[in-house]
Specification:
The chain has 24 helices and 15 strands. It has 476 residues and is of the alpha+beta class. The chain starts with 10 loop residues before the first helix and ends in a 12-residue tail after the last helix.
Length: 476
Amino acid sequence: MSYEQYLTHPIYPFVRHAADELGYDAYVVGGVVRDIIMRRHNTDIDIVTVGSGIELARHTAALISPDLHVNVYRNFGTAQFNFESSVIEFVGARRESYNRDSRKPIVEDGTLEDDQLRRDFTINAMAISLNGDHPFTLVDPFNGIQDIADKIIRTPCDPDRTFSDDPLRMMRAIRFATQLNFNIYPETFEAIQRNAERLDIISEERIMEEFNKILHCIRPSRGIKLLDESGLLERFLPEVIALKGVESINGKGHKDNYLHTLEVVDNVAMSSTNVWLVWAALLHDIAKPVTKRFDPIHGWSFHGHEVVGAKMASKIFHRLKLPVNERLKYVQKLVNLHLRPIALVEDNITDSAVRRLLFEAGDDIDDLMMLCEADITSKNSDKIKRYHKNFEIVRDKLIEIEEKDRLRNWQPPINGQDIMIAFNLTPCRTIGDIKDVVCNAILDGDIENTREAAYKCMLEAGINMGLTPIPNLPEL
């Protein structure tokens, strides 16, 4: 069978021409071949040649345009350039061997067969020839095309060697199984379980790169369960495993917070492509194991788990080398506030409570509401309907208050500088205390959201705290 009709990207004629002029055999390999067969879109194209990949890259680029820049990575024997919205990477066929304490391979020149043998999975080890005696034919020594048909993730050679040599491939196996909705071949999965501790030699950054791809899937829970069953999850995120289990005392039990969390993660992932919102879903109940208490009358409680959870999120992000800038603040905010919207309904919703929620959530209010609705996982359909109806009430009230008071990302009409001038203060805690009084008065609806009302409230608050305003204050 000829695959010429499927090689629609304009790069292929240029590669073929360049390879012919250099006397090389060239092949498109790896994930792009898999996706051609599966009719999936892929913008990363890998070219392998039995020769110099760098030389083929430069020659191909020169045929396209003398101004096309080629990035060369001599240490890896690779080169790449961007063309027609795709990244085109070239490498010479090679064989690899590994030392046990490193995932960096010892590389030697090799044949196409050597190159295919070094690849992670059979579905990624296929190649399509671009020139030579049999152009546009599939080279599939490990029957990857059948594994695609059978929806199987399997290694081309001994899985223990594959995963011991490069333990990141264990994460990739689970990522592909989750993305493609494939099953991991039993022998391959057992090898992951046997080699799970080898993941410890992989950097947190590389592990998180794969884990975030799992969280980007439509059903991340499938990948998280596989990570758990394989023994990989406990290597980098034991806090999630700690959520597992149901404890019962005197006939009173609580739900399995692990299964609940996975359901919330799936609910969010089906509604949003924001991986950090999925992280918030994953961590929203992360502190329940450490805040769990039993009361003979009221049963189980997890008081303060949202506050403790926000602090735990910081430790987890730092440990896993995740972004500790605005991404962490965003996740912490959602974890800290995730109980608030439903509490508004349960406490008879008031304007002041909605104002406070808008003030604290800011532009993330819509994501917070999405997380909170995803958090409704009861098997009682009537309860689900009641909660969703309550959330509609909260949403309507949020819209009403936002249109009236414009409190999203709101700042009080007076600031610390105003307070220091009014009372001749240097920076101190009292300034924050006065500002809180003014802010609370506005959010509670006790005074209008104007500078004049806020300034008057500021003076009264300072006087009540024993301060004396300076005489002849400047005009507002």
